């Protein structure tokens, strides 16, 4: 089944360009008509610049709460998906990707299929697995309405204004002039609407003649147990952005190391982008929504690290058009790894009550003071990335954190951190932590994989320091973050939603047309075989070390100890009611092959 949007319509061009197109049509296919032949495209040095692709990533742990539009029990997501007031002139995203965790309770999710997915424009009559994602329907509509309120409605935008706004907002080091507001500086819906309307007006004033109405449609919808992943496409950009292929992946790392109550679900997109001369350039993007193991302490910290290592070594994507085609997470030009990663503050797992109380008081004091830098230095994920160089996350970067911890809040508390003590806002049973994160990476597909399952004894921890720095430098050049913020005024859950906007530099990410790292059929077979073996090995290790398995073994052994001494009594009971002669004749030792024993019942 072929994936993608309808072929883009022929854009406006000059008379000379139209004449050249007519000559090209007589000789062969034209790039304006969705050409797929490499011969009709210019060589790589002659390719024209390509506008950047802007991707908005959001993550939100819902704490199993389900919206009910009937009684108006729905969260206000404006401050989450809107650009923060400190970043005016922010480009409008071409793709919006939203990841949910704890979509519904585990007891309810256990009755549903483990994995469900749907892809295709909502306006299409036929969708893959249509109607099986009812637990995401309300969230799809809510996010779509929110995006329409922020970017659509009466607002229009010039297609080239995104690049103009970006140039004004990016400094010489490739980052935003003002990344985000503090977590405590929450804004009202009216303030967000004023900012949004101002942004729309500024875009219309740039070039009203080329303005178009902005509209977003859901394209990919996916659910694994309680994880949900939504991908929205900007419809007014269909003439420049086309989805050529869709890839799907999921992997559970929860109960007994395999169930999907924890783990990751991913969606990969192969995009064709038209450059200034309407020639096609290709890029592949991977979105991985994760929910890792919870709790504080060194053992749980190591468990999360092992989950991440297992994820980046064994997560395999399959093509929706050809399920026998596979791709690893390292075979995409750009990768976004986000979700509730559950990493806590170093030292939060201290056990003595007095020490735990003192630690929490120190954290709360820093939160009240707004000492974000001190809190980030205590963060486990920042520690393993910056100091320990955790190899599975090689090449991954995170925008600077300028907000306060996003977990764990008292659900429904509407007071602002700026006016209320953090001790009253955060839960007293858990330590505040930066659980909700967004990481990004650009991958140079011309280089070998950081981990290659096809080469024996090659693992990610063998990456050298030079390779580590080179991978990060490549990401810095190819992907720029524009803002990274936390919506502290959303009171739906004990987590606060986090969002970030990125600009993908296609001229650097896609240096060759249809650049990809495809596997040969025999390599695909070896990869699948190796991944299956590794997952079984991890399942056994986790199973044998789990308290559930040990409890079952103890109960089973206890039953045997109780049952074996009773066997003699059962034998005497059996012998009392069954004649010995009948027992002897039914004995296998006296039965000859092919003969049925004669049973004699004495009167």
Attribute tags:
globular, alpha+beta, seven-stranded mixed sheet, 603 residues, Deoxyribonuclease I, Chain A, 2 domains, single chain
Task: Report what the structure shows.
- This protein is of the alpha+beta class and 603 residues long.
- It folds into 2 domains: 52-545, 4-Layer Sandwich (Deoxyribonuclease I, Chain A); 549-590, no CATH class.
- The protein has 17 helices and 16 strands.
- The strands form 3 sheets. The chain has a 7-stranded mixed β-sheet. A 7-stranded mixed β-sheet has the order 12-11-8-9-10-13-14.
- Strand 9 (263-274) and strand 10 (280-291) form a beta hairpin.
- The radius of gyration is 29 Å and the shape is globular.
**CATH homology superfamily name of the largest domain:** Endonuclease/exonuclease/phosphatase
CATH fold type of the largest domain = Deoxyribonuclease I, Chain A
Extended strand count: 16
What value does the Rg take, in angstroms? Answer: 29 Å
| Residues in helices, as a percent range | 25-40%
Bin the strand percentage. Answer: 15-25%
CATH architecture of the largest domain: 4-Layer Sandwich
Number of helices: 17
Assign the structural class, choosing from mainly alpha, mainly beta, alpha/beta, alpha+beta, or little secondary structure.
Answer: alpha+beta
Domains counted in the coordinates: how many?
A: 2
Q: What is the distance, rounded to the nearest whole angstrom, between the alpha carbons of the first and last residues?
A: 76 Å
């Amino acid at each position: 089944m072929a994936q993608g949007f309808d072929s883009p319509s022929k854009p406006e061009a000059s008379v000379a360009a139209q004449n050249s197109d007519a000559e090209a049509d007589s000789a062969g296919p034209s790039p304006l008509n969705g050409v797929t032949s490499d011969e009709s495209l210019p060589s790589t040095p002659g390719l024209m610049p390509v506008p950047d692709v802007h991707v908005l990533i959001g993550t939100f742990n819902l704490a199993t709460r389900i919206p009910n539009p009937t009684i108006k029990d729905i969260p206000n997501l404006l401050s989450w998906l809107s650009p923060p007031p400190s970043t005016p002139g922010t480009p409008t995203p071409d793709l919006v990707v939203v990841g949910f965790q704890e979509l519904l309770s585990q007891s309810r999710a256990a009755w549903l299929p483990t994995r469900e997915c749907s892809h295709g424009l909502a306006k299409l009559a036929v969708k893959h697995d249509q109607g099986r994602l009812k637990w995401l329907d309300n969230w799809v509509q809510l996010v779509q309405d929110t995006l329409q309120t922020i970017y659509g409605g009466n607002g229009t935008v010039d297609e080239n204004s995104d690049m103009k706004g970006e140039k004004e907002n990016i400094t010489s080091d490739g980052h935003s002039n003002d990344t985000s507001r503090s977590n405590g500086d929450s804004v009202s819906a009216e303030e967000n609407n004023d900012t949004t309307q101002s942004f729309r007006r500024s875009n219309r004033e740039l070039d009203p003649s080329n303005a178009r109405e902005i509209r977003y449609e859901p394209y990919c919808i996916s659910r694994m147990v309680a994880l949900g992943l939504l991908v929205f496409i900007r419809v007014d950009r269909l003439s420049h952005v086309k989805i050529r292929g869709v890839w799907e992946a999921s992997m559970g790392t929860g109960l007994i190391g395999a169930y999907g109550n924890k783990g990751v679900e991913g969606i990969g997109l192969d995009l064709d982008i038209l450059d200034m001369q309407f020639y096609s350039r290709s890029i592949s993007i991977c979105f991985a929504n994760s929910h890792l193991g919870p709790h504080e302490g060194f053992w749980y910290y190591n468990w999360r690290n092992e989950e991440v290592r297992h994820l980046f070594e064994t997560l395999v994507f399959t093509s929706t058009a050809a399920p026998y085609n596979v791709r690893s997470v390292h075979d995409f030009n750009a990768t976004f790894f986000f979700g509730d990663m559950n990493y806590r503050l170093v030292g939060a797992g201290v056990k003595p009550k007095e020490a735990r109380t003192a630690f929490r008081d120190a954290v709360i004091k820093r939160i009240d003071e707004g000492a974000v830098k001190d809190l980030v230095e205590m963060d486990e994920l920042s520690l393993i990335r910056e100091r320990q160089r955790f190899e599975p996350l090689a090449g991954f970067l995170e925008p600077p954190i300028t907000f306060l911890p996003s977990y764990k809040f008292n659900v429904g508390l509407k007071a602002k951190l700026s006016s209320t003590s953090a001790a009253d806002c955060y839960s007293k049973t858990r330590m505040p932590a930066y659980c909700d994160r967004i990481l990004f990476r650009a991958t140079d597909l011309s280089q070998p994989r950081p981990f290659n399952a096809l080469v024996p004894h090659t693992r990610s921890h063998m990456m050298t320091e030079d390779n580590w720095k080179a991978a990060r430098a490549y990401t810095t050049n190819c992907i720029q973050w524009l803002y990274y913020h936390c919506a502290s005024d959303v009171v739906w859950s004990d987590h606060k939603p986090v969002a970030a906007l990125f600009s993908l530099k296609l001229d650097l990410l896609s240096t060759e047309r249809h650049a990809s790292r495809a596997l040969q059929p025999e390599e695909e077979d070896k990869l699948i075989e190796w991944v299956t073996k590794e997952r079984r090995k991890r399942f056994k290790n986790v199973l044998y070390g789990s308290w559930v398995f040990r409890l079952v073994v103890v109960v089973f052994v206890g039953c045997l100890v109780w049952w074996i001494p009773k066997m003699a009594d059962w034998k005497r009971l059996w012998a009392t009611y069954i004649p010995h002669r009948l027992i002897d004749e039914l004995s296998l030792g006296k039965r000859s092959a092919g003969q049925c024993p004669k049973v004699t019942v004495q009167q």
